[in-house]
Amino acid sequence: MRRLCLIGTLLLCVLSLRGQTAREAVIDSLTQNVVNHLLPAGNQLLTPLPYYDCIRYEKASLRFPAGRAAQDRFNEKLDSLLLFGSRPVSLWHVGGSHVQADFFSHRMRTNFTRMQPDVMSTRGLLFPYDMAKTNWNHNYHLSYTGTWQAQRNIERAATASMGAAGIAAVLSDTLATLTLVLNVGQTPTWTMDRLRVLGYASSEEVTLYAVVGSDSVAGLRGDTVWAAVDDASRSRVLELPANTDSVTVTFRVPQGETFTLTGLIPESDEAGIRYFSSGINGAAVPSWLRCADLPRDLQLIRPDIVFFAIGVNDAAVPYGKFDAEAFKSGYRRLMQTVRAVSPDCAFVFITNNDTYRRESRRVKRANRNGELVQQAILELARESGGAVWDVFAFMGGLDSSPRWRDAGLMSADLIHFTRTGYELLGNMLYNALIDDYLSH
Fold first, then answer.
1. How are the residues of the chain apportioned to helix, strand and coil, as percentages rounded to the nearest 5?
2. DSSP helix/strand/coil, 295
3. Are residue 388 and residue 427 in the same domain, yes or no?
4. Is there a single domain that holds both residue 363 and residue 299?
């Protein structure tokens, strides 16, 4: 308690100096040093950034077009977690291929969980993307047996009801398994007290179970843990007898029945950071509005802050065809869905990056719709009290992608980033959030 009082006293002294413009850089550094010195050993709040000529770093901070009350509430929740460990803090990052790749979002997740020791909690929302034969970041391992038919929210003819993952897979085999391993030699390391299997069955005769405590070397057969049905969340919950980082789930599906998998959440009761990411290649705002079970899944996430990163695919149309009003209307519906679950949730709108669009077989040009999305995002933030993280601006505006490609930060398609670029974005957004936290 004495340490906490000292932290508060020194921070008040430091922050009382803010507003003296000539000293801002010194004060920001002093604030960071005070926090890093007094919080538990090993804590470093900000992440060092490399310098690139193509980045306008002065434009990489959060902007608040119409006030910051919601962001201040988020900062208070983060403060409560870091200083007192009193409650978990949930973050939800939703978008298209930038998020599905998970290099960007996982770097954010990793940075948050390294803020100080023992701040890790639920790993987030997972899915076996191999079922859809699509890409994912292999920072966890998911293998399966059985025949699964995958559908995604970008498919207008999809019949499966989807949730926060934006993807589903239908199993009709009578017996199948799914093995999850949370840790694949990377840090931080994750564990779970239970596994929540999101989805739904065609009848009550479909059952799920796991065998735990088995050891082939010692000859132990293990105990069978049957999944309990949670009607409120339309999920199955496996209560694990010991903290673990891996489990195999067996699905027993009688002939003629089906089970539809829509996600996995390895859960922990520890109060800490819960970073959920939802990304589907090609997803636009209407794609997420098709997810009928999104409101239900958000009850499990209960986000304190949402990073909206949807817009690149909405803008992938000829110039003059982008409908800004329809784009904003769709975003408003998404915000309403979130607020129905988390009324005081903070929003951070991430603008489109500069992209190129093919106009003919031989011609690609910078997509001017990026400027229209940027303006629409600013208007949404202004009317909702959200923050804007303006990637389009700090990239350098229209036609800045080639410079990022030449620096090794963007791929040759001038739409997606390289792994280095995505991880840099993760560090930059994290720093923007933490700099705002330290400043307010």
1. 35, 25, 40
2. helix
3. yes
4. yes
